[in-house]
Design goal:
Blueprint lengths: L1 E2 L2 H4 L5 E2 L17 E7 L15 E9 L3 H12 L6 E3 L8 E9 L12 E9 L8 E9 L9 H12 L8 E6 L14 H9 L3 H9 L8 H13 L2 H7 L5 H12 L6 H8 L4 H25 L12 E5 L10 E8 L5 H9 L3 E7 L9 H14 L17 E4 L1 E10 L2 E8 L4 H9 L8
Parallel strand pairs: 3-6
Antiparallel strand pairs: 1-2, 3-8, 4-6, 4-7, 5-6, 8-15, 9-14, 10-11, 10-12, 12-13, 14-15
Helix pairs in contact: 4-5, 4-10, 5-9, 7-8, 8-9, 10-12
Function: Could be responsible for synthesis of pseudouridine from uracil-13 in transfer RNAs.
Enzyme class: isomerase
Pfam family, one: TruD
Length: 448
Amino acid sequence: MRPAHPTEQAVGMEHYVSETDGVGGRLREDDDHFRVRELERFDTEPIDAPTDAYPHLVVRATLRGWDTNDFASRLSDALGCSRERVNWAGTKDKYAVTTQLFSVYGADPADLPEIDGVEIEVVGRAGRSLEFGDLAGNAFELVVSDPERPENAVAITDELRAFGGLEDGESTVSIGVPNFFGQQRFGSRRPVTHEVGLAIARGDWEGAVMAYLGNPTDAEPESTQEARAFVEETRDWQAALERVPNRLRYERSMIHALAERDGDPGPEAFRAALERVPSNLQRLFVHAAQSYAFNLMLSERLERGLPFDRPVAGDVVCFSDTDAPAGLELPDTDRLQRVDERRLDSVTRHCERGRAFVTAPLVGTETELADGEQGEIERDVLDDLGLSPADFDLPGEFGSTGTRRAMLLRTDLRLEAEPLSLAFALPKGSYATVVCREYLKVDPVALG
């Protein structure tokens, strides 16, 4: 196996599964070079449906250079309504062209604004708002700029097909990669989110706060590095407020909380500081710790040479979602089965046909670890991290019951040579960068 980039190893992605040198280059040279389209899974009624029964207007927006949250705020301002009335199924990147659904409570199509860089299409009405996760997945069209070895893309594709692929199609080939959590999960330029979550799970509230406030990195402006170093060295919260830039609003919220309780260095003061940040960020801390452990488990399975596309005795598999859109493999982690020797052959056939998937845990209080060699991997990783499922019995937004996640990410790939481009679809929660990293093999910063 080929060692991954050191920045990826720091978040548990320790290997590439393809040995061929990467094509090099970078993504997102232009917004048009990174296109994302939601694979929708949300039922709507005709636009003339009664608004008392279907009060939510659903639109499909194509955004160029817009962050999802910023667009939602701009849309609500233009409609003269609360930002809370605008909802969507998945957050997308700013430096891209993205197509996604939004719902707006009480809106009329005639009131929809014209916004630079945005195309809005009315889809229909719905009886409820969109919720996060109301999509099946995303389709990507990505251009690699300035590749150094574009000819290597074919050999890499052959290796990925061998790792986990199915049969070739007329214009596509099926490939497989480990279903790692990508760099964005941990912070693309400052990957510390999982360190915060690990400290929380260990009950080290002070360590969690300092992991977030400190840890200066070269990727940040010099003033930010100096401010983080000052916080680490002095823990003078009042003075820190004068040094930490206003743009670091979450850090400042934590520091304000600590300044208010200056002289109280106990764990409750640090926990209160963490609770000052938005609830979704509180959850993200713990989710990142779970994701880091998951990545380590996949890396260890690779080290041991165990298959990803079929089970071994002791594995836990999930089955496919029968309502998935055509051409998209969508694991249903609510349907789990432990594989013993008696079931091994039948479950293997299901995996070969894309009807079942080998899983690893996102550890939480209700996690039941696998048996056999995969069970050894899961227990060893948790032991090395000083964690157990019971550690995720945490207060408020920090707690997690856990789930399982498919180890193999398999997709149909369309590869174009000029310009070098990749087109594929992934289920929600999977990262385009874990496909692209195998092809480019560069610093993750170049992947966006």
